[in-house]
Amino acid sequence: MDQALVELNQKIDALTAQLAYLTDQAQIAERQRADRAELLRDLIPIADQAYHMAIEQLEEVQDYVDLGDLLRLAKRLARNGRNLETLLDQFESVIDLTQTIGPLSDEAFGKMVTTLAELERKGYFAFARGGKRIADTVVTSFTAEDVDRLGDNIVLILNTIKDMTQPEIMTFVRNTLLVAEREVEKPVDISYRGLLRQMRDPAVRRGLALTMRVLHGIGSQGQAVKPSAAN
């Protein structure tokens, strides 16, 4: 008797649990139905407004678009669905790349601005502007014939410049200019006695000897050029 009573209570408990579950499900379904009904009430005015707007917009373009064009466009989009998907994937990749390199480009731009400001402070741009004016002056000062002759003798000119810019030559020219600058400021004795006294200086005699040697070389070159010029 006790066992039967226990089993009966268990069955009643199971039925009670099932009834509670069914009640919860019914309440959930009722809430969902109420939510759907509320959603429909909210969407119907919006859909109606969108429908009227679509009609108005289609009326504006009905002279330019017909149903056949729309069907062909829909078919074409359907046929190229994979291509459109690939294009969207590439577009997303470009967006990701842009987001990735954005901070790097900002940093590079900042460094470039800093570098340009430093170059401006040091005077590079002013030098470039001055160089442009010099180039304009040089270009406007030479004719086409001058440029042709310059092209014919450019190798000789560059070799001459290379020889003149040797360290020994530059040092000699600089020292000579410094000495001349100092000596020009001093009083000069141009009397015969003063000149004879200077001639007793070994450095003066060596300078005269070197000058005469250079003049001899210049004269020899002049004699060598004359026969060729005569030919």
Please explain how this structure is put together.
The protein has 231 residues and is mainly alpha-helical. The protein folds into four domains: 2-65; 81-141; 144-184, no CATH class; 188-215, no CATH class. It is 90% helix and 0% strand. The chain has nine helices and no strands. It has helices spanning 2-61, 67-79, 81-122, 124-141, 144-152, 154-164, 167-184, 192-199, 202-230. The longest helix has 60 residues, at 2-61. It starts with a helix and ends with a helix. The model has no long low-confidence stretch (mean pLDDT 78).
Which term fits the overall shape? elongated
What is the total number of structural domains? 4
Rounded Rg: 51 Å
Provide a count of the helices: 9
- Report on the biggest sheet: none
Structural class: mainly alpha
Order of helices and strands: HHHHHHHHH
Name the features:
mainly alpha, 0% strand, 231 residues, 4 domains
A few lines on this structure:
The chain is mainly α.
Topology (SSEs and partners):
Blueprint: H1 2-61, H2 67-79, H3 81-122, H4 124-141, H5 144-152, H6 154-164, H7 167-184, H8 192-199, H9 202-230
